[in-house]
Structure formats: C-alpha cells, structure tokens
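Reviewers asked in the last cycle whether our approach scales beyond single polypeptides. To address this, we selected a multi-component target totalling 744 residues and predicted its structure end to end. The input consisted of the following lines:
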Amino acid sequence: MSQTDIPVIELKNVNKHFGDLHVLQDISLRVKKGEVVVIIGPSGSGKSTLCRTINRLETIDSGEILIEGEPVPQEGKKLAELRSRIGMVFQSFNLFAHMSILDNVTLAPVDVLKKSRKEAQAEAMVLLERVGVADQAYKVPDQLSGGQQQRAAIARALAMHPKAMLFDEPTSALDPEMIGEVLNVMTELASEGMTMLIVTHEMNFARQVADRVIFMDGGKIVEENTPEEFFEHPASERAQNFLSTIRDH
Amino acid sequence: MSIQALLTEYGDKYLQALLTTWRLTAVSFAAAFLIGIVITVLRVCPVRPLRLFGDFYVQIFRNIPGAALLILLVYALPYLQIVFPYDVCVMIATILIPSAFCSEHLMSGMNTISPGQIEAARALGLTFFQMIRRIIIPQALRSTVLPMTNLLVATMLTTSLASQVPMRPHDLTGIVSYINTRAAGGVTAFVISAVLYCATALVIGRVGSLIDRKVRILR
Amino acid sequence: MTNGSIRDMLYETPGPKARKRIRCFTVLAILLLAGLLALVIRQFAVTGQFAEKYWSFFTRVTTWRFLGEGLLTTLKAALTGSAIAFALGFLLMRGKIRRNRVLNAVSTALIEFTRGVPTLLFIYFFFLVVPKTGWKPSAFWKITLPCAISACGVVAEALRSGVNAVPKGQTEAALSLGLTETRLFYKVIFPQAFRFVIPSLIAELVIVLKDTTFAYIVTCADLMQNAKVLISNYDAMLSVYLVVAVIYILINYILNKISDRLALKLRRTQAEVKKA
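The resulting structure, written as structure tokens, was:
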C-alpha cells in the first residue's frame, strides 16, 4: 500500500454511549488524503460527537480510530502530538479571549512546534491575510465579528500545518450574512487539497464542495454517497424525510 | 478630648497601631493568597478525596465567625495542649478565613473562562500545563483583581480581631478601647481610627480599580 | 460536552495510565486524611477531652433549650440588624442615584465610611461612647445597631447594582406610559432590582450574623454568651465551644447554600430572557 492509500482518518466499528444513550452505533468510515467529507443529519444524530472523537475530545467505548494508520493515543504527550497534527474548528470559535488574534495564531506554533516568535508571527500574518482578517491581527477576539472570529480560528488551526482539519458546525453560530465569508475560506481550503471532515447544515455548500456526503441519524451512518447521488436520489426514507424538511425552508 | 490633645498625647501610639494593622493585613493577605491557591488546586484536581477536603476547608472557614474561631484558638485549644501565643492565634484566624474566600474568588475567576477555550487549547496540541500557564492562569487572575481588592479590604477589617486579645502593640481597633479606658477620648478617638481605616480602604480600592482597568479583558 | 463548568472540564477523561495514577493518589489521599483525623482524635483522647463529664450534659434537654434561647437572640439580632441595614442601605442607595450633587456626595461618603470601618469599631462605639451621651440602649440594641450600620453600606451598593441591572427598556416603557419618575422607580424598577439582589442580601445576612458573635462585648445574651454560662457550669470549654462553632457553621452554610441556589436560578432566567 502506498502512502496515499492509507486513509488519513479511519474509524472502525466505533461505539459510544452517553449513559443509556447509544450516540454512536458501529460507525465505520474513511477519509482519504485530499478528500472533503461532509456529515449531515438531524440534531442529536451524533455527528458532532463523531467529529470530536477523532481527536479524542470525546472518548469511545469500543472500536478503533486511526490517524494515518496509527491508533489515536489515549493520553499524554503522544496524544498532544497527534492533536497538533489535526486541526479543529469549533462552532463557538473558542478563540483565547485574553490574547490578540495574532497571539492566538502563534501560541501553538511557538509552544508546541517550538518555532521562534518571529517565524511564527510572519507565518501567522500570511495566514491571516489568506483568510482575510490580517487588519484585525492586533485586536482581541471580542472586537471582531463572528465571521471574522471564525476565520481567525481557521487560521489558528492552519498555523499548525495539519494533516487534516475537522469542522464541527463552523457556521451554525453565525449570523446569516457572515456565513458566506467563512464558507468561502473553507471552499478555498478544499480546492487546495486539504483533507477535511465537515459537520454542517449548509446543504448548498455540501453539494458544491464535498467529495462524499455522509448522512447520519440516530447514531448510525444511514447513507454514504457522492453529493450528486445523495441530493438527487436519496436512497433511504430517513434521508428523504430529512432533505424534504430542509428544502421546505 | 479635642483632636489636638488626643494627637499630641497618643499620636505616636496611633501611628504604631496603624502600622500594626497594615502589617497584619499585608502578612495575612499574602499567606491567605498562597493558601487559597493551594486549596483551589486541591479543589480542581482529579483526586476526589482531595477535592472534598478542599471544599470542606472552604465551607468551614467561610462560615465560621471570626470571634468563634479566635475563641477556639485562644481558649479551647490549650485543653488539647496546643497553646499558641496571642498574636499567632490572631494571625491564624486572619489567614485562614480570608484564604477560604480567596479560593472562592479564584474559582469564580476560572469560571469566567469559556470551557470551549480549553477544548481549543487541547485540540491544538497544548499539554495540560501549557494550557494552565497560557490560557487559564492569565484569564483567571485578570478577572479576580476586583474581588481580590475587596478581599484585601475585608482582611484589613478582619484584623480588628486583634483587639479581642491582649496583643501589643495594639491595632487600630484595640487602641480605641485602650484610650477610652485611660481618658475620655470620646467620639474623637473613634473618628481618628475610623478615618485611618477608611483612608486605607479607599487607597486600596483606588489602586485595585486602576490595576483592574489595565488588565481587564474586553468583554 | 462543552457545557460543563471549568472545574469539570479542566481534566479530560483519563486514559489507562492516568487512571492508574489517579487511583494511586486517591488511596494515598485517603490514607493521609485518615491519618490527620487519627492525630486529632488521638490528641483528644490523650488530653482526656473525650471524658463523659465534658459531653454528657449535651444529652439533657435543658442544655439545648438554653443554647436555643441564645440562638434565638442571635437570630433576632441578625435579622433585625439586616432589616435595619436594608432600610438604611435603601436610603443611601436612593441618595446616591438621585440627581442632587450634595446628596450624592453625602451618600457616597457614608457608604464608603461604613464599608471601610470594621464592625468591631462600631460595636466599641456603642459600648463605650454611646452610654456617655445619655442614651442607654439595651444590650440587644448595642449589638444590633452597630452590625446594621456596618452592613448598610454594602447593602446600598448591592441594591445600586441591582437597579443598574434592570434593563433600560423598562424605564423607557414606563415613562412612555406616563408614569412619574418616583412611581416608575417604586413600581417598576425596584421590584425587579430587588429580585436580582436577593442572593447578595442573604450573603450579607450571613455577615451580619457572624458580626453578632461579638455580642459578648456588650454582654448581650446571645448564643456565645449562653455558651459561656454552660462552660462555667460544667467546666467544659473545648466541647461547648466546638459545638457552638459547628452550630454557627451549619446555619451560615445553609444560608449561603440558599443564596447560591437563588443566584443560580436567577442567572438561568436571565439567560432565557436574553435569548428571547
């Protein structure tokens, strides 16, 4: 098997319970290098939890999670090291409130990748330029709009040169007029070949950008297909119901 | 007695009393702060018995009246053959009680941090200690400046307990009853002490506000 | 998920090595704490403090009734003091927020004065100076009034922050309905402000209660004083003072818990209102 054949992210028969609730039921999926996989589904379907198990923000009860063929470490330095290779963007941005945007982006490269401040800052400015918030570099997060904060958060994740990026409902907390600017950044990332796993409600975005769409409901993966196939001819009844409720809005 | 007379006769004693109160306050607050940090660390660590102990400690010392604690230390402990000199008893009380409140303030300070930032720090690959040093402590300390300022003033007020035991030199409260048993100090004696207390409190408050304004995170 | 407080989120779900370490430390901690407790008990035993004569009178109803009377006086003093503190604090708060400059200055000065002076100083004032002026209040008032005065500044500030927390929209709505400023304050703003500050008022009640323990200075027959009588009767200083301390701690603990719970409920309803 050549390097490009090992999936960047692989889940094998993953199960998780929250108390009595079986939130992840026998989940298996693979994300290849450069692939953009979008997970959609109704709330409570477990899609966010799935996303968060990949870098062990949530633990699993059984099954395997492999990053580039290696199982995710359970704790300690190895886990931190793995997390530094996977970028994550959160629904509520989670920028560090007491630091400027620039410091937010340079914190991890300096502390974890041991880069010099100068080098990290230079790279950070390039990234902030790329996502369009370079002029906000010296402000604190509270001074930025939601869309700007999320784009800064994406830059923060990119600063670690991740092998893959996880997006947990990145636009769900944004006002409608700011969703576009964030989706544009994500679309560009995808076209540059970044491996991405995105949990979202944005159907049009999924249609345009995804290589594969995964539909989850009740903790299970119900359907998995190309965007064209899934949106035009959803195979399962649950997917059909879901899509019709989305369309009616 | 007029202010002139009082000050000429007892002026230096008042100064001594003021310095005593300041000394007690500063030392007690410093010690209480350190203990408060230790207790807070216990209260958030993953070892359950230590957490419970920390919580228990806080509940005891934030709810016990200062007088009750002092009386226990001075009169009751000797029956267990533990005898501390008077000033040590006062210090124990003026340190332990504020330390409980200090821990409460530190916990509230930590709670001003949105939990998502912890997850973000983890997701970036920061180790536990890196997270504490770079994310938690800076934010927690900044939010506790005003509560800690109030705690410093409260500690100063608690040091008035020194007046309840035969301690020399007197503190600002003890000096008043000392003067009043020797001369008809009247209201003036009180006013001088009260003004000195107030002035100290105001200065502390002012400095605290300034520091807070400088370090406060925009919210 | 991301809903817990920092305290729960600080340590993530431990992996196998971490779990072992935690278990190890848990055992060590239990041993350490048990050891400390054992030391304390040993000291009690060695000095003979477990002897029957020091504890047997606690089985008698008369003992508890006597303590109960003292406790009643303590509670009366605390509640009365708090009520007076509330009244005074309310006046001071009004003085501070009204538009009269002189009133503002005087109120602020009084508030800062009562907040910056220890209660003990006020108590000594009532004990040493007031009787000489010809007004001779009873021991009860000699402890209640100074505690009230000491607390009214804090109450005033708490009430003021409550008033400031009432959304400005309320004032505008009331004014547009034609209410006068005074009516507006008493019928619209203050009731809401009051609900906001109930937790801090209960917390202040705890502080007043703690201050009343100095009643022995003015020889008022509160819980501490009655304890002293018991002590001289049975020569049991340690046991009695311990029991009394525990009583105070329990009462204050309960009051603080009530205050915390109310504060939590308030924050929740406020968050819901904000969402709407």
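The radius of gyration of chain B is 21 Å. We regard this as preliminary and will revisit it once experimental data from Aim 1 are available.
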